[in-house]
Amino acid sequence: MSTVSYSKTRIMTEGAMMIALSTVLSMVKVFTMPYGGSVTLLSMLPLILMSFRHGTKWGLGIAFVHSLLQILLDVSSVAAAGSLGAQIGCVLLDYVLAFTALGLADAFAKPFSNNKLIAVAVATFGVCFLRFLCSFFSGWLLWGSYKDYYDWAKDLPVWLYSLIYNGSYMLPETIVTIVGAILL
Question: Are 170 and 37 in contact (CB under 8 A)?
């Protein structure tokens, strides 16, 4: 067997293990929001590590596959979107773009390659922020009607509701993930 073939097989095997680990960790919820979103036990970290270890191309590929698995595991959320257009938006913003963005960690780290600790922290923050932006836009464009279920949000503009709602779980999730990435 050639070295290149072995290397790709090894990377794909590691990627499959990282997808499995990320999926299991996504089920360990520290805090869950009533209408989607949660703080998990480092569920994004295996995907981010895959990008650090094998580059952006592999990171994006593995994170994309993970996004498809997340859709399958949470298909009821997609079905809850009112129309076909909203369901497509949900698939793209809440899953495909949000989780695939985690594979960009290596690209975010490159400018800071002279300091590994800063590179890991900045890159982890960067990809978690991209995931937050996907959730924010999804909340603003697709799920804004849910703000009426909260007394505190009834008089808020939809964009502010989405910012507060999604920030309330993504900020702690980001902090936990950055700490985990730095420690590893």
Answer: yes
> C-alpha distances in angstroms, 21 versus 47, 105, 139?
9, 18, 27
> CA 94, CA 86: separation in Å to the nearest integer?
11
pTM: 0.92
Instruction: Render pLDDT for 87-146 as a digit per residue (tens, 0 to 9).
Output: 999 999 999 999 999 999 999 999 999 999 999 999 999 999 999 999 999 999 998 888
CA distance 162 to 140: 5
State the DSSP H helix or E strand holding residue 2, giving kind and residue range, or none if neither. none
Q: Where are the beta strands (DSSP E) in the chain?
A: 29-32, 38-40
If we measure between CA atoms, which residue out of 105, 98, 136, 134 comes closest to residue 121?
A: 105
At 112, the amino acid letter reads F
How open is the CA angle 84-97-90, to the nearest 5 degrees? 25
Beta carbons within 10 angstroms of residue 100's beta carbon: 25
Measure the N-to-C terminal CA separation of the chain; round to a whole number of Å: 32
| pLDDT exceeds 80 at position 1 | no
